[in-house]
Amino acid sequence: MAKLLSPFKSLPAERRQALVLEALKRHKGAKALYAQRIAARGGGFRATTLVTWANDKLAREVLRLGALQAQDELELLQMLYVDLEPQYQITFLDAAGVTHENGVIPEDLEAPYASAEQVAAGAAAVQAAHGEVGAHYLRTLVTYNLAAWPGLDTALAAQA
User: Fewer CB atoms < 10 Å away: N or C end of the chain?
Assistant: First the structure.
């Protein structure tokens, strides 16, 4: 049986690289962190050399060498679905009746955020409006935050 890819690794290579590149642009410490991880793997480059590389070259190496950790992947997906392309989350939250502002759930709102019926309605709306890209968003929620969205795994499986 083949191992299932994480939601991040199931994205096309170009999309993963664009996300790493965006993180390098947005987060001041990302370049140093990724450079340190690559240097720790060996291969002859020191972190001080790697931080001088262009962001696109470093992003390619981060992916080629597998320098991302599970938490990095989660943060990149959160950046994708909350900051860069919130339309999937907005559709889901609106259809599920969850309070939000431009796809951002208030900090004081406690999970679970909706009933299983509301979650199923949100999942159906995302699939109808956004197709396979929306399904990827939903699979990301199932992988990383199923407790907050009861029944999402079942609703997603039923729509497959």
Answer: N
How many C-beta atoms surround the C-beta of residue 119 within 10 A? 29
Domain count within the chain = 2
Percentage, residues of the chain above pLDDT 70: 97
Judge whether 20 and 11 are in contact, CB under 8 Å.
no
Domain that holds residue 44: 13-79
Q: What is the pLDDT of residue 70?
A: 92
Contact (Cβ atoms closer than 8 angstroms) between residue 39 and residue 46: yes
Q: How many helices (H) and strands (E) does the chain have?
A: 8, 0
**φ/ψ (deg, to 5) at 158:** -65, -30
Phi, psi for residue 122 in degrees, rounded to 5: -65, -45
Secondary structure letter of residue 52 according to DSSP: T
Q: Residues 95-149: pLDDT tens digits?
A: 999 999 999 999 999 999 999 999 999 999 999 999 999 999 999 999 999 999 9
> Could you tell me which of 11, 147, 153, 26 has the C-alpha nearest to residue 79?
26
